């Protein structure tokens, strides 16, 4: 017989001695139950920080394989006051015993509960160096973790905070220097003695190794180490968690899955306290919380880590703060459903998955999934041209239409990356709009690939006339040079406006990107320039496509941009009236006007720009 608990080791018994041994074992178990904590208590008894002294012995609980919670002995080295901020102390400990000697401090141990004198002291959260001879770690006091459970009204919604180009300072895995005296005690020089956040395993399932390699650096500043894993079937006991068990914070689930895993420190009622440090430091969040199932622990002298599969969903993560990640058992938050279709001349494959809704993460997650769908297709190879179509359904607003073409380049970047980054940028613009919080109902993406480089550069352009009359139609001839092919010519008829004044007119022959950059200058400027999200979506749907050749007629008269409306050739009287009535930043005056725009579909990516002049007689 063998107990399922982490401390009792069964022994074989013969018929003559089993009664005596049974009594002996019962006494041992009774003594252990009095001396050691129950990790499943709703209200674990805690030991105040001021009662913890150097030299005190304790034990830490964690899972290294399967569902078995292992116990690892430890010794308190001291208290590091104000390490993470005012009144944010850290307990410095050293792990002892064979498991600690073999594995060291493992990525995924974050949140492992630490008990001293049978009382909960806190969670393992920091580690000391990569090649330290001893498993020295930092423990976040349990009271500081409880303080992370903030009311929603006291926090700023993470979705309302515009994303930054780099992770916030609180999210970066910064180094915490040890005091000189403490560094000497652990046998290190003060100049090289640092504590850092224990890495969090970021488990990719269904992802190509090249995709993981490309995008993992986006998460490493948050203290995450990319690993490959999978998902485990949901079980009836998934929600029966206790201190020492594993949980996963779900970012993507479905045909693809991505989750970050930590250890449970304590369960108090329906509240679950994990990690002992931030995941992303987003504050108030909403992401699914799932049971984590440890496959094994990979021991390494550099950085040991757990390989974890995500089990069934058990609740929601509500807080992501400096001292803890806090979740609640019960309802699981909504995710954004995404359908991705990858089509080649020989086959079509669909991927269905869901991604968490968050300003900073959703654009990146959709880009990763799109890139993965492209490169995992068996027909994929470098040198393919991709056609993107589909849409994003936004609650209460028009659909964001997706349509564009992407040709391969000679840069040392996978060809599908440009398409993935374009999708990421579209989501970024929707989520970071300054008008309202966009709720995405669903996303559909279709990527069609052609095994050739369909790309042409604008080499030259000319008009059949240098002098024109108002209302006259003239032909603009454009010479294009395809990739490693013979040049070809296309003709675009344009009409001179009937009200055109005498003097020069500028004709711009260009690709779609050049015109888009000009039009975005007012939609991405001061916040009051557009009336709302609907007008931003209207502008996005008007944007030019990569696979068309554009000819734009520019005249030297002012253009007034009012919200999403373009008013070319605005008379001075109209400008003066609107200038007196408009709110600051609600309009923009440009020195030139577009007198007309014409385009020609070419079924290949167009690049470049050319300018010519005509004179109105």
Structural class: alpha+beta
Average pLDDT figure = 81
**Fraction of helical residues:** 10-25%
Task: Tell me the number of structural domains.
Answer: 4
For the sheet with most strands, the description reads: 6 strands, antiparallel, barrel
Strand line-up in the sheet with most strands: 1-2-3-6-5-4
Summarize the structure.
By secondary structure, this protein is an alpha+beta fold.
Describe this structure in words.
Strands 1-2-3-6-5-4 form a six-stranded antiparallel barrel. It has ten helices and 33 strands. Helices cover 17% and strands 40% of the residues. Mean pLDDT is 81; it is low at 1-36, 153-173 and 522-528. The protein is of the alpha+beta class and 617 residues long. The chain has four domains: 7-35, no CATH class; 37-332, no CATH class; 336-450, Ubiquitin-like (UB roll) (Roll), CATH 3.10.20; 455-616, no CATH class. Helix 6 (362-375) runs antiparallel to helix 7.
């Amino acid at each position: 017989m063998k107990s399922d608990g982490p401390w009792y080791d069964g022994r074989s018994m013969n018929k003559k001695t089993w009664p005596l041994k049974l009594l002996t074992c019962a006494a041992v178990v009774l003594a252990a139950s009095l001396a050691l904590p129950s990790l499943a208590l709703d209200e674990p008894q805690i030991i105040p920080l001021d009662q913890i002294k150097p030299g005190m012995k304790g034990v830490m609980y964690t899972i290294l394989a399967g569902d078995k919670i292992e116990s690892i002995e430890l010794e308190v080295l001291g208290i590091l006051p104000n390490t993470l901020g005012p009144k944010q102390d850290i307990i410095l400990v050293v792990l002892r015993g064979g498991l600690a000697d073999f594995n060291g401090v493992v990525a995924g141990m974050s949140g492992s509960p630490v008990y001293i004198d049978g009382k909960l002291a806190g969670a393992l959260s920091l580690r000391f160096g990569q090649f330290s001879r001893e498993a020295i770690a930092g423990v976040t006091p349990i009271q500081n973790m409880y303080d992370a459970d903030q009311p929603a009204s006291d926090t700023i919604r993470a979705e309302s905070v515009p994303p930054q180009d780099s992770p916030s300072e609180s999210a970066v895995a910064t180094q915490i220097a040890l005091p000189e005296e403490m560094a000497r005690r652990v046998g290190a020089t003060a100049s090289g003695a640092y504590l850092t956040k224990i890495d969090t395993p970021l488990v990719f399932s269904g992802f190509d190794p090249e995709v993981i390699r490309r995008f993992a650096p986006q998460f490493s500043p948050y203290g995450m180490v990319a690993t490959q894993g999978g998902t485990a079937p949901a079980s009836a006991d998934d929600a029966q968690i206790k201190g020492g068990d594993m949980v996963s914070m779900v970012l993507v689930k479905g045909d693809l899955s991505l989750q970050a895993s930590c250890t449970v420190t304590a369960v108090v009622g329906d509240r679950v306290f994990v990690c002992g440090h931030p995941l992303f430091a987003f504050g108030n969040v909403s992401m699914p919380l799932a049971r984590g199932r440890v496959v094994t622990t990979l021991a390494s002298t550099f950085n040991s880590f757990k390989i974890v599969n995500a089990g069934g969903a058990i609740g929601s993560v509500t807080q992501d703060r400096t001292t803890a990640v806090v979740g609640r058992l019960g309802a699981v938050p909504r995710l954004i459903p995404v359908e991705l279709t990858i089509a080649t001349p020989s086959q079509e494959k669909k991927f269905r998955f869901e991604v968490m809704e968050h300003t900073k993460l959703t654009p990146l997650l959709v880009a990763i999934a799109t890139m993965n769908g492209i490169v995992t297709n068996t027909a994929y190879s470098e040198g393919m041209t991709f056609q993107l179509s589909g849409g994003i359904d936004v609650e209460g607003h028009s659909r964001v239409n997706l349509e564009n073409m992407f040709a391969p380049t000679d840069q040392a970047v996978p060809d599908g990356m440009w398409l993935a980054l374009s999708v990421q940028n579209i989501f970024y613009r929707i989520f970071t709009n300054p008008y309202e919080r966009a709720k995405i109902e669903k996303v559909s993406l279709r990527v069609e690939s052609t095994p050739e480089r369909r790309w042409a550069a604008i080499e030259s352009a000319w008009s059949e006339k240098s002098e024109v009359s108002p209302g006259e139609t003239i032909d603009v001839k454009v010479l294009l040079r395809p990739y490693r092919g013979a040049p070809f010519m296309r003709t675009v008829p344009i009409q001179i406006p009937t009200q055109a004044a005498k003097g020069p007119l500028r004709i711009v022959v260009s690709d779609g990107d050049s015109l888009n950059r000009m039009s975005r200058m007012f939609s991405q400027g001061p916040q009051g320039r557009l009336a709302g999200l609907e007008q931003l979506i209207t502008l996005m749907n008007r944007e030019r496509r990569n696979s068309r050749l554009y000819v734009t007629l520019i005249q030297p008269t002012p253009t007034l941009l009012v919200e999403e409306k373009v008013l070319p050739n605005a008379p001075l009287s109209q400008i003066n009236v609107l200038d007196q009535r408009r709110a600051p930043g609600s309009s923009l005056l440009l020195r030139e006007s577009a007198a007309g725009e014409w385009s020609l579909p070419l079924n290949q990516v167009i690049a470049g720009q050319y300018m010519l002049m005509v004179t109105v007689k």
